[in-house]
Amino acid sequence: MNSIERTLLTLEHRQPDRVPVDLHNFLVTARMMGANSYADFFRDGAAMAEGQIKAWQRFGHDVLLVENGTAALAEACGVQVEYLSDSAPVAKVPAIESLDEVDQLKIPDPYMDPRLSELLKATRIVVEEIGDKAFIIGRADQGPFSLASEIRGLSNFLMDLAMGKQLEQIHKLLDYCRQAVYRYAMAQIEQGAHCTSIGDSPSGPDLISPKYYRKFAYPYVKQLVADLKASNVMLSYHICGNATPIIEDMISTKATIIEIDQKADMQICKEAARGKTTLLGPIDPSEIMAKGTPEMVTEKCREALEILAPGGGFILGPGCALPATTPDENIDAMIETAKKYGRYH
Q1: pLDDT confidence of residue 165
Q2: Which residue, among 219, 212, 90, 50, has the nearest Cα to 144 in the 3D structure?
Q3: How many Å from the N-terminal Cα to the C-terminal Cα in the chain?
Q4: Rounded mean pLDDT of 26-53?
Q5: Which secondary structure element, helix H or strand E, spans residue 3, and what is its range?
Q6: What are the φ/ψ torsions at residue 297 (nearest 5 degrees)?
Q7: 164 φ/ψ angles, rounded to the nearest 5 degrees
Q8: What confidence tens digit (pLDDT) does each residue in 254-271 have?
Q9: What pLDDT, on the 0 to 100 scale, is given for residue 312?
Q10: DSSP secondary structure letter of residue 253
Q11: What is 42-69 written as a DSSP string?
């Protein structure tokens, strides 16, 4: 059974030979490529593809997540982004100073944008080279709420929500972001990716209340999922932090995969997700994967497998992006633990 068959069976809530493994390792690929400057690396589609393929050849993981961080789509929408020499790009200057400017925003064409087109190139090359052997997720960057937070500026946007004086413009911005994410997600699928994904972490309980999540984030993700499903496109949906208070809402969006991190209650998430969605995660990328020992990685992965694997619907992986400093032996430990203790037969 190859990685694609293994992963698809998992997404169908069936039990393959073992639990698949995802690495969420775009920063690790930059390190493995010996990139002198991550700023250049994350602008170069061919280099990003080579890094992903090199990592897959080294580790043999089942699921590849092709991305360059959390700012690419925001940059295409007009946000000023800083490309760092030793980490992922970050949004710096919002695209709009006022909600009154929302009507001026244009949906970017991913094929014409200089950054998004390079990311599409990366996905396309990875698919051409190993798309018949590994399950490829072409990341659509940010979810609608997160993208809105970058376009408006996070503190400004949260203040807009708190004041509640321009609700029509807030919802216009969120709907614009939904459309932009959909356009880019479809472009990723057009490169041959098996699935697409979004991160919408600013909408999580670590930052806003579940009440605000349900009013300002949930409806747009649910519509995005529905629009993608209409074209038979699968979506993976990630929120950092303790998503336990909204896990049932996240699942009810009908996203194919829900990514959880180490703060989430695994037992509650498993019971909520059983037969409805596939969970991905939740190993701590920093304290365990990057700073821990292989023995610590094995212990945490075994614990996750014991709780989340029974009945299927689970992909083992880090709860968020692996730091570039993650030791190879810790990644090996995660994959070997899945092979040894994640078997269904």
Answers
A1: 94
A2: 219
A3: 13
A4: 97
A5: helix 3-11
A6: -60, -45
A7: 65, 25
A8: 999 999 999 999 999 999
A9: 96
A10: T
A11: TT-HHHHHHHHHHHHHHH--SEEEE---
Stated pTM of the model? 0.98
* 36: phi then psi, degrees, rounded to nearest 5: -70, -35
Question: Does residue 42 contact residue 83 with C-beta atoms inside 8 Å?
Answer: yes
Q: CB of 285 within 8 A of CB of 241?
A: no
| Domain enclosing residue 282, as ranges | 3-341
**What distance in Å separates the CA atoms of residue 333 and residue 299, rounded to the nearest whole number?**
10
Q: Are strands 90-93 and 314-318 parallel, antiparallel or unpaired?
A: unpaired
pLDDT above 90: residue 345: no
Give me the number of domains the chain comprises: 1
The whole-number pLDDT of residue 185 equals 98
pLDDT attached to residue 72? 97
Strand-pair partners of 195: 137
DSSP 125-189: HHHHHHTTTSEEEEEEEE-HHHHHHHHH-HHHHHHHHHH-S-HHHHHHHHHHHHHHHHHHHHHHH
In angstroms, the Cα distances linking 49 to 46, 184, 214 are: 5, 18, 37
Lookup: tokens for 100: 């009154």
The reported pLDDT for the residue numbered 302 is 98
Task: Output the CA–CA distances (angstroms, integers) from residue 110 to 143, 170, 295, in the order listed.
Answer: 16, 24, 43
Q: Which two tokens stand for residue 10?
A: 């998992």
Give the domain CATH number at 199: 3.20.20.210
CA–CA distance from 61 to each of 12, 41, 79, 101, 338 (Å)?
19, 22, 34, 44, 10
Q: In DSSP terms, which residues pair with 91 in a beta bridge? A: 81
CA–CA separation, 302 and 139 (whole Å): 28
